[in-house]
Each structure stands twice: as structure tokens, then as C-alpha cells.
Design a protein that fits this description.
This protein is mainly beta and 121 residues long. It has no helices and eleven strands. The strands form two sheets. Strands 2, 4, 5, 6, 9, 10 and 11 form a seven-stranded mixed β-sheet that branches.
């Protein structure tokens, strides 16, 4: 079982930066990837970034070149560095663990409350 708690959100002006953290408890071998998702008002939750245990990354097109997902195995923490933030990045951000089921990655952990990121002037 894997439990995750995200933090680091806040209010930032366009062009600013934030670093989200997600503390993870459980075996590193219990999952195949860690990921950040976000959900904006009135929209579906979407994958923002994924980092597999093998080190490969996936980003939604809208954040490529601006966001970076990373992981510290010693601290059992996954990060999302967000630079050049835009108003459209405003959303609740969630982290989760995922497993590869043979055809896709599927969320393994439970959804928490997330952390609010608001980008506004």
C-alpha cells in the first residue's frame, strides 16, 4: 500500500514558479510510476506529469518545457517544479502512484485532497 500527501501549492502571479512536493510512504517496489494530476474547475482531471521507476517521463503538451517531475528515493518524495506559470495552470494538483497493468498505467493509491495552485495577477 502506498500513501501520498501533497503540499506546496499557493497563489502566484503569471510567470512565477512553485515547487510541489508529495511525500510517499510504502515500498518503492509497490508501484511502477509516480504522477501528478490536476483538475481545473469544470474540467476533467488530467495527467500533468509521470515519472516511471525506470526514469522515463511523460508531460502533457501544455506544460512541456515549463514543468519538471523528479523524485528523491531517500526522502520518498516526488516533486513537480513549475516555472513560467500561466493562469490556465490554475487547478487542484494531486499526486498518486500508478501500476502498469499491461496496457496502461492505472492509479494505485487513493486520491487525497490535493494542493491548490492559483495563478493570477
Amino acid at each position: 500500500q502506498v500513501q501520498l500527501v501533497e503540499s506546496g501549492g499557493g497563489l502566484v502571479q503569471p510567470g512565477g514558479s512553485l515547487r510541489l512536493s508529495c511525500a510517499c510512504s510504502g515500498s518503492i517496489f509497490s508501484f511502477n510510476a509516480l504522477a501528478w494530476y490536476r483538475q481545473a474547475p469544470g474540467k476533467q482531471r488530467e495527467l500533468v506529469a509521470r515519472l516511471t521507476n525506470g526514469g522515463s517521463t511523460t508531460y502533457v503538451d501544455s506544460v512541456k518545457g515549463r514543468f519538471t517531475i523528479s523524485r528523491d528515493n531517500v526522502k520518498n518524495t516526488v516533486y513537480l517544479q513549475m516555472n513560467s506559470l500561466k493562469p490556465e495552470d490554475t487547478a487542484v494538483y494531486y499526486c498518486n502512484a500508478e501500476k502498469w497493468d499491461g496496457r496502461r498505467y492505472a492509479v494505485f493509491g487513493s486520491w487525497g485532497q490535493g494542493t491548490q495552485v492559483t495563478v493570477s495577477s
